[in-house]
Amino acid sequence: MEVHHTDLGCGHRPADWPPFFVARELATTTAGLRERDDVPGMVLIADEDRVLRPVGDGRGPRVSGPAAALLGWLTGRADGRDLVLDPPGPLPDVPAWRS
Fold first, then answer.
1. At what angle do helices 19-34 and 67-74 cross, to 10 degrees?
2. CB-hemisphere CA count at 13 Å for 77?
3. HSE (CB half, 13 Å, CA atoms) of 78?
4. Distance between CA atoms of 94 and 91, rounded to whole angstroms?
5. Pairing mode, strands 42-46 and 84-86
6. Among 91, 79, 71, 93, which Cα is nearest to 3's?
């Protein structure tokens, strides 16, 4: 519901999503990405918990930032401008989110 509320374009952004929702959906979304063959290798790190979340082959850049910004980017609801890559470079292309 939170994600689709954002889709309505009424000013509800990933930063407005409740922390419990973000934590649950980030775990679910990254688990789903680990099962897909079309995901580039990277490691996601939310500022709030610093947990390493490998996706794809787990090799590649580390993408870090606020958990809501990570989830927003992974679901196609944010452009990722609040995220940091190590090493620096463009954000990997992530496949379309499956709700």
1. 50
2. 26
3. 22
4. 9
5. unpaired
6. 71
> What is the DSSP-derived secondary structure letter of residue 10?
S
- Residue whose tokens read 């947990």: 51
Which parts of the chain are beta strand (E)? Answer: 42-46, 52-55, 62-65, 84-86
Q: Residue 96 and residue 38: Cα distance in Å, rounded? A: 10
Strands in 62-65's sheet, in edge-to-edge order, are 52-55, 42-46, 62-65, 84-86
| Percent of the chain scoring above 70 in pLDDT | 86
| Residue that has been written with the tokens 């787990």 in this structure | 58
Instruction: Name the pTM for this structure.
Output: 0.85
Structure tokens at 98: 């499956």
Contacts of 99 (CB under 8 A, 6+ apart): 3
How does pLDDT run across 10-38, given as a tens digit for each residue? 565 778 789 999 999 999 999 999 888 89
- Closest Cα to residue 8, out of 77, 82, 80, 56? 77
